[in-house]
Model the fold of this input.
Amino acid sequence: MAQLRQEVDPGEVGLDVKALDRLDQHFAHYVDEGRLPGYLVAVARGGRVAHLTTHGRRDLAAGLPVEPDTLWRIYSMTKPVTAVAALILVEEGRLSLDDPVARHLPAFADPQVYESGSGTDVVTRPAAQAPLIRHLLTHTAGLTFAFYHSHPVDALYRAANLESAVVPGSNLAETVDVYASLPLQFEPGTQWNYSVASNVLGRVIEVVSGQPLDEFVAERVLGPLGMTDAGFCVTDEQATRLCELYGETDVGGIEPIPGLPLRGRPRFLSGSGGLVASAHDVHRFMELLRRRGELDGVRLLKPETVNLMTRNHLPGNSDLRSFGARPAHDEPGNDGVGFGLGVSVVIDPERTQAPTGLGTYGWSGVATTTFWVDPSRDLTVQFMTQVRPRSSLKLFPDLKRLVHEAVTG
Done:
């Protein structure tokens, strides 16, 4: 077990201590109000952690504090890890971004695209473009989530028992076959829709590598990076450090809710949202990306691959707002934000709803966790808590603003 530690005084790396104190006080207020159980925030420049704060409880009932080695369900922050795993296979020539998904998963042959109607009266037509691996990485494949309640195709997902993105009791291969049996919401490569695509990508990784997703990710990503606590399940020792998961109530408080079934290896290995990790693990992953694919003498990706991963791939270099995309996981908004291979990318800082640098990339998780890398400021930031919000808990715009105010050099 490794633990994140502060490595340098903030002033030495151009961060204002008083501004960082304001950041801490802001989020401590959420804890004092009973809207967060506790949190961890870490800010690093040049790879050195200059600010690390833990506050509140990881388990309110037991009175256990948040500590630097607390473990967190990172949910959709799993997606960039899955993307890195896939790009390793691309670099090895075992997978291509332009491979049709059906080359590796035959169930995706002859895809149908939604045309009109709803329910049993849905009308489809053959897709003009086969979904490609790059479409999975960019969420432009035409897949969706069941919980949106905004389109007839997501209603078909609900009818197929995909409310939680997995058919209850099924494994990854079985669930992905169900995805493949459903119509695409749009022609691949033409729109952006946050979706189950990373689960499909996880299954592709299994087929191409010949290994279960958890084994491949552990062997090729987590292990080499020294992400010693990250994985798809927890040991008995790790379970004592795992933060309880809470949900936001109607009146703005929080209450315990069920989380990922992390005791024992899960039957469904979710490349979309299955990982648990410590702040140390997240820092190591951010450092891999910040350093363009290399960390402590271990190179997982070429610099050119990370450059490709962290630039905008949306049609016409457009932003997420152009496709009517909803902010995902408490993101501050989609104006000026594009999407790369598994991460969001800021393409127009002046249009974003929170201060940020050009080229900043990262992603967030549904339990109100987030990370980002700002190359223009050589800055990495992570925020960890465990609350699944309803509508009123919007933390990340303030987090971005407060971090921005702390940068002096």
Notes: The radius of gyration is 20 Å. The mean pLDDT is 95. The first strand starts at residue 38 and ends at 45.
